[in-house]
Input
Amino acid sequence: MSNAVSLNPEEFVEGGGLIDDVDVVMKECVFDMFDYNGKMVPGVPALKIVMELGEGEEATQYYSMGSNADWIPSEDGSQLLAVGKATNIRMSSNGGIFLKSLIDAGFPAEDLGDDITVLDGLQAHVIRVPAPKRPGIKKETEKKFEDTILIIGDIIAMPGEKKKPAGAVKGKGKGKGKGKAATSKAKPAKETPPAAEESDEVTDKAMAAVLDLLESEGTVSKKDLPAKIFQTMKADPDRNAIIKIVFDDTFLEEGPWDFEDGMLIGG
Output
């Protein structure tokens, strides 16, 4: 009998139409087989997410979960079933990276059991980050399919919560909004001094990271910031929080640099 695998990233193991910088609603989340549009038959088990982009637009994203020798989707697509020797999702798989970003953004780990449909209705801001290098994958395949991974940058509303208008976070919902953006999460009524100090420290690190990039490159586009921060701060435990901060228009507009039309220009 096949067993459903846990989707909680705390139980993962280490191992082996692009959209970006946009507000989405996860309309449907299921596991399915994905053949890379006919280029990989019979395909691999993948997390399939249909995302609403607003204005009647939708995009479907696939996140590979590993080998078809280890996993298959359940009949209704709600679970990933073990059929081989593997018992845990690999952290380095695209699906593993996506689900880890979900937890890093604040989704309760205990709510991720083995049913992926708990994500239906989640509203989030998604961004692209570089995919890890995977030995053994042909360069042309890696370049076409795995250069970047669309991950959760910020959670706007949890499933079941009242939906916020598209563009409630960072611009107009497609990363092209100008002016100051609304923050993605309401601030608590009271904030303890340790939390405030921690927030200030991460903001300072984000400021320093952007200044270092501008010193070496002169100009940097907002769209390129996640990839560059991801690469330069791989070992920093605050990396994901820093990536969120540098995507906030208010932060970019108030920094010691020029920010205009999505470009940062060093002083």
Helices lie at 94-104, 139-145, 193-217, 225-232, 239-246, 249-254.
